[in-house]
Amino acid sequence: MVVVAGLSGESYDVDNEPFYTAGSRSVQYLCRDPRGQQRLYKLYRTPVTGPDAIESARQAMLFGRQTVLAAEAAGGSTGDAAEAVNWPIDLVTHEGMLAGTVLPLIPMDFLQPDGRPRTLDQLWAAPGQVASYFRAGLAIRLSDIARVLEERQFVHGDLSAKNVLWQPAAPLAYVIDTAGPKTLDAAHDRLKDRYDLAVLVYRTLLPDAGAGSPGAPWQPSGVPADLDPRVRALFDRAFGNGGFGPDARPSATEWSDTLRAVYLTPDGANYVPEALAVLDRHAGQPASAPAMATVAFGSPTTPSPPTGWSTPQQPVAYSTAPQSNSANTALKVILGVLLVVLVIAIAVGAVVLTGKDSSKNSAAGASTTTTVTTTAPPTSTTAGFDKNTLNKQSTDKTPFTADALLPQSFTDSKGVVFTRRSFGPKDCVSSNMSQNVKTALQNNKCQQMMTGVYLDASEKILTSIEVFAFPSNTEAETLYNGLKGQDQIWDVWCPTQGVGSSVCQANTDTLFKATYSSWGSQEYRYLYESYSLYINLAVDSSLEPNLEAPSRTILNLVGPDNYWKTR
């Protein structure tokens, strides 16, 4: 074990054996900081001696350390694009020379199962297999990351596919680099970054391998005529079409603002179907426009469901970040009465809502007995935060937004990753609900509901979640106690178009027969309900564990804890 000291004043225990030696400019070692956090130490094969280069690295380290450590202290990423860069968080010097850099480890979401980085060229290799909304969202995210660098006067120098990672669960990116971001030294550096960003956006949006002989620099084969003229204009400037010179290359801010204007609705809540259809055509995909609907199926939801898909996490500093807001008309299918029984569970006072028997796995319509169990109040998520404030509207400071109440993605107990595709706030009472449910919600002053739809990576399983808010935990608990043992009808959300829309479009008999899992819980002043089924409406009891895993897991991740755990 070797100990090295950083400019920050912290020391690092460095492993004796290298972690990676194939790099031409450095040898990499795993190390640990004073708090026991695992880091990566890159020892340069040739120390950096230039004063300007060392100062540039120091400036990047100061910003990186502030960004990374603040996110870690908050319990994880806040979604800010500044956190999507593998910033240096400390520097190691020797006799006035920069000997090495300390970096955070790459987040697991951006690694392949074998531990290798999931680079952007892997997505480019199969564009027709990646949904157009995902590619548009990823292009926006890439622009936002470059925007962070540009606004803080940093240049990357090599924004290439090998230095940009992505994750399949959500349209998010992570930028790495063997040398690290540098402060702006010359116009050439900035213009190269701008060209590289244009290439990343082009090849992410369009399935084009580019022109040129093997080994030659990549060149775009052309900008499709049916692409939105605002995007075409940026590509023309970036690639020198029409006589534009290098100094006309669009900034990251121009890309970010333009891509949002083209592919997102003005409120930022939804993708624009017509714009996605153009990308679909050039990827050989059928056009698909994301949307949401409800289907009455023994689970709680809302009237007039929103049309909308979640967009990639955005920098919190930008007011144009997508919000969960929609009021489009949606498809509703009334299925009739299903028996759903409230069963009080022993877990932080949670109440399980299920249409199953005591094993949670029998056919719809089975009943169970109910028992009430009192438990101790939950412990605090973060030091100094009083969870009792979440029991009353007057003290609950949780924003009623999808980003606050619903995770962007989650991994169920079987290791399957689900990504939020649709969301939106709605009134509590739906016309599809049975009268006893409507009465209970009205009598207990239910205020509003947030809905979300998640699909697994293979797009086979749909999971719907609803979060109801009440004035206090008293009303939420009263509703549960009042409805237990009664027959009930609630609603479930599903897409109106694209993957999952067949759930709403199926006939009643098919929907009744489909295998599903539905669970619910009550916590603080909130009521939660989840619902999972196979999109193809499979009828197979052996599949029930695959549905129960997401429907139960999501209940532990939604609500105000999703917001306050990162504060």
Overview of this structure, please?
The chain has 567 residues and is α+β, with helices and mostly antiparallel strands. 26% of the residues lie in helices and 21% in strands. The chain is built from 14 helices and 21 strands. The protein has a 6-stranded antiparallel beta sheet, with helices on one face. Strands 15-16-17-18-21-20 form a 6-stranded antiparallel beta sheet, with helices on both faces. Helix 3 packs antiparallel against helix 4 (187-205), helix 3 runs antiparallel to helix 6 and helix 4 packs across helix 5. The radius of gyration is 26 Å and the shape is globular. The two termini are 35 Å apart.
Write the layout of secondary structure elements.
Blueprint: E1 2-5, E2 11-14, E3 26-32, E4 38-48, H1 51-73, E5 90-94, E6 97-104, H2 120-124, H3 132-151, E7 154-155, E8 164-167, E9 170-175, E10 182-183, H4 187-205, H5 229-239, H6 252-263, H7 273-282, E11 293-296, E12 332-333, E13 341-344, E14 351-354, H8 402-405, E15 409-411, E16 417-426, H9 435-443, E17 448-456, E18 461-469, H10 473-483, E19 491-494, H11 501-505, H12 508-513, E20 516-523, E21 526-534, H13 544-553, H14 560-564
Parallel strand pairs: 11-12
Antiparallel strand pairs: 1-2, 2-3, 3-4, 4-6, 5-6, 7-10, 8-9, 11-19, 13-14, 15-16, 16-17, 17-18, 18-21, 20-21
Helix pairs in contact: 3-4, 3-6, 4-5
Task: Provide a concise account of the structure shown.
The chain contains 14 helices and 21 strands. With 567 residues, the protein is an alpha+beta fold.
How would you state the average pLDDT, rounded? 77
Largest sheet: 6 strands, antiparallel
- Please, how many helices? 14
Q: Identify low-pLDDT runs.
A: 285-383
Cα-atom radius of gyration: 26 Å
**Percentage of residues in DSSP E strands:** 15-25%
**Percent of residues in helical segments?**
25-40%
Please list the strands of the largest sheet in the order they lie side by side. Answer: 1-2-3-4-6-5
Distance between the termini: 35 Å
Q: Which shape, going by the Cα principal axes?
A: globular
**Strands, total number:** 21
Structural class: alpha+beta
